[in-house]
Each structure stands twice: as C-alpha cells, then as structure tokens.
Amino acid sequence: MYNLLKGKKGIIFGALDENSIAWKTAERVHQEGGSFVLTNAPIAMRMGNLNDLAEKTGAEIIPADATNEEDLANLVSKSMEILGGKIDFVLHSIGMSVNVRKGRHYTDEKYDFTAKGWDVSALSFHKVMQSLYKADAMNEWGSIVALTYMAAQRTFPDYNDMADNKAYLESVARSFGYFFGTEKKVRVNTISQSPTPTTAGTGVKGFDSFINYAEKMSPLGNASAQDCADYTVSLFSDLTRKVTMQNLFHDGGFSNVGVSQEIIDQF
Ligand code: NAI
C-alpha cells in the first residue's frame, strides 16, 4: 500500500455486497488511508450486508436514495459533520434499469420504467454533484468518479435502455466537470469498466456469454472489480489532478480492438 489517500475524506455510493465495484473500492480506499461515509438506497440496505463493510473500514452509513434531493442534502451535510470537514472524493456506483428487470425489450420500452431507470442511473449523478456543489462541500483538487459502460458509444443490443442512461451520465460528467473545474478546481470523470460479475452486471441478458466474449477480445483480459478499485484510487489520489471531464476506458483494451485472433479462431 502507498498511503495515496492519507487524510482524504469521501462518500462512496453503491456498495451492495462483496461483489459490488463500490465494495471493492471502499476496501481499497481504506487500505490507502482514506476515510469515508458509505451510502446506499434505504431498500438496498435491507438486501445487502453493508454493515459488515462499514465495520471493516471504520465507516459510518447514511442511507440515501440517490434520486431524492432531500436525502442527498442530508447525506452531504452529515458526511461533512462525521468526517470533520469538506469532501475530497466521491464514487457514484449506481445503476438500475426497470425495463431490463422486467424483461422489456428495447423496442418495447415502458416509458415510466425508462424514466425511473434514467433517474436512478443517470440523473442521480447530476443530483449528487448539484448537492455537493450547492453545499460547497468539495475541497479544492477533489475528485468525483462515476462508473459507466461502453454501450454508451457502441451498440450492445441486450444492454437495453442502460446504453442511453450511460450516454447521459457521461455527458453530465463533462458538463458538470466544466463548472466544478473552473469554479472549485474539482475533477469529474467516468470510468468505462469491463463487464463485471455483480448484481447489476449479471442482470443483463446473456451476461455469461458476453463476459467471455469480452475476455477473448481484450488483449489484457477483462478488468475485474478489484482492478477497477485500484484505478479509482488513482483517480482519487493527487497523482491525477489534471485529469477531468474524461470518459476513461478501463477494459483491458477491449474498446480499441476490432477483432482478436481468439475470436477469429472460433469461426
Ligand atoms: P451493484 O448491483 O453491486 O451496484 C449497483 C448499486 O446501485 C447497488 O448498490 C444499488 O443498491 C445501487 N442503487 C440502485 N438504486 C439506487 C438508488 N435509488 N439510490 C442509491 N443507490 C442505488 O453492481 P455494480 O456492477 O457494482 O454497479 C456499479 C456501477 O458500475 C453501476 O453504475 C454499473 O452500471 C456500473 N458498471 C457495471 C458493469 C458490470 O458489468 N457490472 C460494467 C460497467 C459499469
């Protein structure tokens, strides 16, 4: 360990169980000396085992529905109280599509499902940042990261309306990143992660074949949740202070490969 986050304080959204990318990130941030508040939707608290993670990392838990502005305002002010000052890093690791959950095809969306999924998966990132911004809660040279997927740029048919949600999320990172950068010297980036076996990931139809395909297409192999935690730590650290408004591919090279020999050999 390198003490990369010694003295830094943050908020981590989206740890549900030990497979969650946010869970691995929280453990890794803790190892690097960072302290943080853990948060998730009240309903998720009942499903997962966030208490175990909180105990392990010495973190407090504040429930917040990331679509609810009041919850977010409360989360931001309580976090500053608990952590004893402004925030240095925030991880938004939240995603959910009601259309996917209910098995609705992309060409047969139910639009109130679409709107709900967009609110949870995409607009929530704006809501989180607006809450931090209005409370002037971020320290200078702080870092905000959200997780995304390459279906925002290229078509993966079974990714359904999450593709559109991720495109919106990535755009919000650029747009808010401008204001957070010029006014508060805070950076905002998205990490475009390999398919990863988590609750959200395995909810996508055909996930098992898909993750194997990505593995064979990526020169370095898929990036795991643990790899993603490492990368996120680097983005929270002072070593990446001038990286902002970027969508950063963390996928073993997948996004720049047309076809790999292993895939050709299968035909
Ligand atoms: P996960 O299922 O462990 O995490 C998703 C989290 O979102 C859960 O903790 C859930 O409780 C939380 N959430 C849902 N609704 C919420 C709400 N209203 N308010 C607050 N939190 C809410 O799955 P995973 O894979 O760790 O997902 C984290 C992020 O990574 C998501 O943005 C996902 O789209 C993204 N991602 C995942 C990939 C994968 O293959 N697993 C690939 C690329 C990106």
From TrEMBL:
GO terms for molecular function: enoyl-[acyl-carrier-protein] reductase (NADH) activity. It comes from Sediminicola luteus. SUPFAM superfamilies: NAD(P)-binding Rossmann-fold domains. This is Enoyl-[acyl-carrier-protein] reductase [NADH]. Keywords: Fatty acid biosynthesis, Fatty acid metabolism, Lipid biosynthesis, Lipid metabolism, NAD, Oxidoreductase. It catalyses: a 2,3-saturated acyl-[ACP] + NAD(+) = a (2E)-enoyl-[ACP] + NADH + H(+). The active site is at Y149, Y159. Gene3D superfamilies: NAD(P)-binding Rossmann-like Domain.
